[in-house]
Amino acid sequence: MPRDLTIVPIHDSPFYPLLAANMEPIMRRLGRALLVVLAILAVTLGIAGIWLRAELRASLAQLDGEHQVSGLSAPVTVTRDALGIPTIHGATRGDVARATGFVHAQDRFFQMDLARRRAAGELAALLGPRAFVLDREIRVHRFRAEAGRAVALLSAADRAILEAYTGGVNSGLTALGEAPFEYRLLRQDPAPWLPEDSLLVILSMFVTLQDTDGSYESALATMSEVLPREMFDFLRPSWTEWDAPLVGGPLPMPPIPGPDVYNLRARRHGRHPPTSSSGTPSGAEAPALRAKHGVRIPTRSAGASAPATDAVSRLLGIGNWELGVGKDGDAALGSNNFAVAGKLTDNGGALVANDMHLGIRVPNTWYRAALEWPDAANASERNRLIGVTLPGVPALVVGSNTHVAWAFTNTYADWSDIVLLETDPSRPNQYRTPHGWREFERHDEVIAIAGQPGQRDTVVWTIWGPVLGPDYRGRMRVYSWVAHSAERLAESVAPLERARTIEEAFDVVNGLGAPGQNFVVADRSGRIGWSIYGSIPRRKALAGLLPSPWGDGSNGWSGWLEDSEYPRIVDPPNGRIWTANARVVDGHALVTLGDGSYEIGARARLIRDRLMAKSRFSALDLLAIQLDTRAVFLARWRDLLLRTLTPEAIGGHEERARLRAIVERDWTGDVAPDSAAYRLTRAFRDVVTERVIAFVLAECYEADSTFDYTTERRRDSAIWRLATEQPYHLLDTEYSSWQEMLVAAVDATIASVMAERSGSLRDRVWSERNVNVYRHPLSAGIPFVRRWLDMPRHDLPGDLYTPRVHWGAQGASERMVVSPGRESEGIMHMPTGQSGHPLSPFYSNSHAAWVKGEATPFLPGPTIHTLTLRP
Q1: What is the rounded CA–CA span in Å between residue 78 and residue 72?
Q2: Mean pLDDT on 667-673
């Protein structure tokens, strides 16, 4: 730079006044232009917002006035109360079915669409390539073809109901001013409803509630072939100390096998773990453990805070409803139902309670409704159904027909079997059957994908079901599943509507083609009963617990049980019935039902004990049981944690001392959202579980890369006994004593919870881990609308092991207490709301009462809206 050049600030320049004078009008013009641009932008955004809101409002359900619906024989009145619950008054059952389809479609069509597509393997056609893997997995079952066969097998009466419902769905969809908003977001158009779609919705519940690929039986097969029989029996107990069955009592537990049977410590001595870390714990609190002895433990985590690992989960939120998540033993879809006889109530009416535990999504699984029409045989009498329906299906799912009231829980009985195929290299396209060698059936499935060409996949079938991939020993397998029976599915359209007694109800539900349920029922006379809702296969010989060949005819299924062969309980002497996904019976009835991995029974036991503690009951008493959050199941793990943290173990370790102080002093006995004591106890139990499994089942994981012990829902019983009886020959070789292993588990617990965020151990409360988030299926894929679509977060009490279940997105999809004929005294609430439309006043207005556990009425309230559907 030249030495004589001087840099002068612009404000000190002699030219500054001239520049300022010339720039001032320019800046004013730029300012005005900017204001005009901003004003135009604001107006444009405002107009766009008004247009978008108008477009969205056009897809709202019609609540008042009149609408013409073809196919009706007479006008139908649809009244709605303040919660949006419709009462549908029609002249015939067909008219009511048509109107039910109309309101379902107007309020919930996207939900119905996802359900049918989930079962049919047609999600990718709507959602794009991210759903392809999910479609491919389910296409092996060919449910679309099965639903079509079932429609052809319907009785004339059921076909008429289903066709009327289908017509109503399509009328309700076309009556909307615009397609439901989800289709605009996806740039898709909704496809019309077909009669078979309603049966696909039923099949979607099979997918939700039962094993779709034989994973439980596959795990048992590996254990039975790798472990000594005594070790297999111990790790897969047929019952546990928590069992509270209706029939039978506690049964002896198998002993821990001695070192003469399975000295695993000696067998594993000298084997060193790899230098890298792999392994993923199923216990959400456990850190990523070293893959001991060359073993990686595959697991499925659950809960809203668990990361989504596949693309469809990222698109569709946490996806644990029709999308099939929920197979982890710590995320089993369950329910509670229980009943007390009229002799235990002040008015003589029996009470039935139900809370069905599912993944809570937005909108909720169920749709509340009351359906009424004159009785064809007696014009002075009206048929009346009140309860919850499943959008996509014309029937009442649970509730009351004023003569009987009923409730469901998932049975976890054995509804499927794996068949070991017998083949011959000289017959590459055939397999052995009891009637000789037979050709495989090959079906060319085309999976449509939005925005991409469809992909073809070949599905291979046998007379028993679809061919699965080979097991870890290379044996070809077939999956035989109750869900594959079209003739049974054809019996599921509108059951229980005319049942008047417990016996009549049993005769209707025994043999239906629906996911097997514990059916608890009460009738107007004050009686109560239990049986199975669903179809039970008649098994021969070894068919059942473990895979077996069926080619010679000695094993397999030979039809279905007759109604008279179903287990039934009517009027138990103590006047009480309870089920909660655990073992219900023993002896021959248990053999008949089989074992599909029953729950450990903690909830069933708590419910039984509450029922036995009183001699008189009201509806509020049963609601109180549904809301029970006592931490009884984890109490013994708290005691073990305190016993582990001896003065010697604590010495010189401040964090261990802090943990002990929190667990010892702050434990209230309840699973409260602000409880650090419960959260730390749960974390300790999960870490111990992981470490025990990693060693005790190491040889199973080595033999079978797909092995998954989390399918065994009763595993806590075996793990608890190992952790407390402490057999040295089953102690991980990394430790010299069980006390050393348990102290290491304490340290791992501290490290895992403190790694999540800043703060102290006392800040690591249960709600921080158990994040209760209830999402719309699209909200995770479109973040800017998440707050608009999802329910607000609430910190809620409860866990998987309390009657009041809250675990991530899993919880009570409804709570009901009702006495048949006394519905006005009943209780009902459910999460989210009636409508699936975020601009509807009924989108979330049911949620607050559900969160608070309020005793809101079972019956719809006073009429707020009236819609008349005319022919």
Answers
A1: 14
A2: 97
Give dist(CA 692, CA 698) in Å, integer: 10
pLDDT tens-place string over residues 576-632: 999 999 999 999 999 999 999 999 999 999 999 999 999 999 999 999 999 999 999
Q: Radius of gyration over alpha carbons of the chain, in Å?
A: 30
Confidence of residue 756 (pLDDT cuts 50, 70, 90): confident
Query: Span 794-818, mean pLDDT?
Result: 96
Rounded to whole angstroms, how far apart are CA atoms 755 and 752? 5
Angle between helices 632-644 and 715-725 (to 10 degrees): 20
CA gap 845, 847 in Å, rounded: 5
Mention every residue, 6+ apart, whose C-beta is less than 8 A from residue 152: none
Q: What is the DSSP letter of 719?
A: H
Given CA atoms 586, 591, 593, 595 in this order, what sign does their dihedral have?
A: positive
Longest distance between any two alpha carbons in the chain, whole Å: 115
Rounded distance between C-alpha atoms, residue 765 and residue 181, angstroms: 38
- The values of phi and psi at residue 841, to 5°, are -65, -10
- Among residues 450, 452, 428, which one has the least CA distance to residue 439? 428
322-to-111, 138, 275 alpha-carbon distances in Å: 9, 12, 40
Distance CA 98, CA 170 (A): 10
Contact indicator for 196, 144 with CB cutoff of 8 Å: yes
Report percent pLDDT > 70 for the chain.
Answer: 86
What is the Cα–Cα distance from 784 to 782, expressed in whole angstroms? 6
Three-state SS string over 668-697 comes to CCECCCCCHHHHHHHHHHHHHHHHHHHHHC
Mean of pLDDT over the chain:
89
What is the Cα–Cα distance from 296 to 276, expressed in whole angstroms? 11
The identity of residue 826, as a single letter, is G
**451 conformational bin, left if phi > 0, alpha if psi -120 to 50, beta if neither:** left
Structure tokens that stand for 675 in this block: 């409880």
Helix extents (H) in 328-405: none
Distance CA 315, CA 775 (A): 11
Instruction: Convert 840-868 to b/e letters by CB count within 10 Å (16 or more is b).
Output: bbbbbbbbebbbebebbbbbbeeebbebe
What is the identity of the amino acid at 25? Answer: P
CB under 8 Å to 102, separation ≥6 — which residues? Answer: 69, 78, 168, 169, 171, 172, 175, 869
* 810-812 and 806-807 strand pairing: antiparallel
Q: pLDDT confidence of 786, banded at 50, 70, 90?
A: confident
DSSP annotation string for 607-632:
HHHHHHT-S-B-HHHHHHHHT--B-H
Count CB atoms within 10 A of the CB of residue 725.
Answer: 11
Backbone phi, psi, residue 581, to 5°: 75, 5
Beta strand segments in 83-187, E: 86-89
CA-nearest of 280, 148, 366, 346 to 752 is 280
Exposure letters 154-177 (e unless 16+ CB within 10 A, then b): beeebbbbbbbbbbbbbbbbebbe
The answer to whether residues 795 and 767 touch, using CB atoms and an 8 Å cutoff, is yes
| List of residues 6+ apart from 255 with CB closer than 8 A | 234
pLDDT at position 716? 96
**Whole-angstrom distance, CA of residue 516 vs CA of residue 483:** 10
Tokens of 575: 């006047």
Report CA torsion sign: 777, 780, 781, 787: positive
pTM, full prediction: 0.89
Going across the sheet that includes 467-468, the strands are: 416-420, 477-481, 467-468
Average pLDDT over residues 43-54: 53
Token pair for residue 510?
Answer: 């025994």
* Other beta carbons less than 10 A from residue 466's beta carbon: 21
How crowded is residue 331: how many other Cβ atoms within 10 Å of its Cβ? 23
What would the two tokens of residue 662 be? Answer: 């929190």
